[in-house]
Amino acid sequence: MALTRDFKETIKRRVESDPEFANVLLNEAIDLMLDGDSATAKLILRDLVNATVGFERLAEEVRKPSKSLHRMLSASGNPNMDNLSAIFATIKKTLHVRIDTTVTAV
Question: What share of the chain has pLDDT > 70, as a percent?
Answer without folding.
Answer: 95
